[in-house]
Amino acid sequence: MIRPVARRALDRSRPALVAAVLAALALSACSASKDSAGNRQSAPGAAKFAAKARADVTAATARQTSVTDPVRSSGPRPVRDKSIVVIPCSMSVEGCARPARSTVAAARAIGWTARIDDPASDVTKMSAAIQRAISSRADGIVLTSIDAAAVQNDLKAARKAGIAVVCNMCGNAGNLYQAVVPPLDENERAGYLLGEFAYVEARKRFNAPPKFVIMTDDEFETVKARTRGIKKFIADCKAAGAGCRTVAEGSHLASEISTVAPGRVVQLVRSHPDYNVLFAGFDAALNFFAKGLQQAGLAQPGKAFGVSVDADVANTQMIRTGGYQAAAVGFAFARAGYAHVDNLNRIFQGQQPVDQGLRGKLIIKEDVPSNGKAWEGDFDAGALYRKTWGLK
């Protein structure tokens, strides 16, 4: 039984007690709205965002098949006695060399003459290579990772000479290329997908949202599209209250990836030790960045990881062995060569080129090639093209 005096004291203290309880509840709610890294979360929006990211990552790692990613099953019979010139950005860059080699293989399979003219990343030499193709009276030119804007006068000259011109992984200013494989928006999708993977993986490894260092190369429309994609992801993540942010950005040229650019990455990482994801626009760059970080003692997969595009040999090796790079979006470049030849065959016969259906796949440790090679595709698309062409 409470004595009257004690009851009066309790009544007088009740407002203060209620206020204290409400303050504690508010503090608890505030704490619940933060993750372990102190990043504010909007629980309903963040949960929905996280579920979508996980679903997209799962779908993007699924095996590609002739049913999920079909090759064109109809088209004109092969035209004979054609010659093409393949001009990559550089044969020393794996992401340029692989589709160049597969284009030559596909052209020879269809019975054409094909050769590679390597400009070694020099725009002046790219122009000269196109002019040589014009002088040799080639029927077609296939470029890889050379934007139309960089060689537009030469492309106009080639088109004026009646040469069919297509490109692998290119921007198409002025529609000077008659076909581009894959479409530019697939590169933006690749950047967004790498953001989704980074979110899922950072949560799993660090119990924290991704904090990005982004390295950009504005020389290539495809790389700019990939950067747009990951920045769009970060913006969507912020809007959902899921905690993503960019801590630093840097830039480089393709010619700098093995010289000064790795040092810039090391400086950014040292200046922003709270980062946990490094995004690079293409695998050749990330390979050198990872080497620079390793030499500086900063390539620690337990603290951060890298993501990029191409699924080159050195990069799939890092992914396979649990090294610094954790994921890449790969495009089936062995298939791409056949896609370019198929489009050229249509153009030579007065038909329109078609969407060849090439799309990126997310390559992570669970689905990386076990043979120590780059990812070139999950099935033999070349055999299906040869069947479409009526070849054995």
Q: Can you tell me about this structure?
A:
There is one protein chain. By secondary structure, the chain is of the alpha/beta class. The chain contains twelve helices and eleven strands. α6 packs across α7 (221-239). Residues 1-41 have low confidence and may be disordered.
The number of helical runs is 12
User: How much helix, percentage-wise, in residues?
Assistant: 40-55%
Shape estimate: globular
Q: What proportion of the residues form beta strands (DSSP E)?
A: 5-15%
Write the layout of secondary structure elements.
Layout: H1 4-32, H2 43-60, E1 83-88, H3 94-109, E2 113-116, H4 123-135, E3 140-144, H5 152-160, E4 164-168, E5 179-181, H6 184-206, E6 211-216, H7 221-239, E7 245-251, H8 261-271, E8 277-280, H9 283-295, E9 305-309, H10 313-320, E10 325-330, H11 333-348, E11 361-363, H12 381-388
Parallel strand pairs: 1-2, 1-3, 3-4, 4-5, 6-7, 6-8, 8-9, 9-10
Antiparallel strand pairs: 10-11
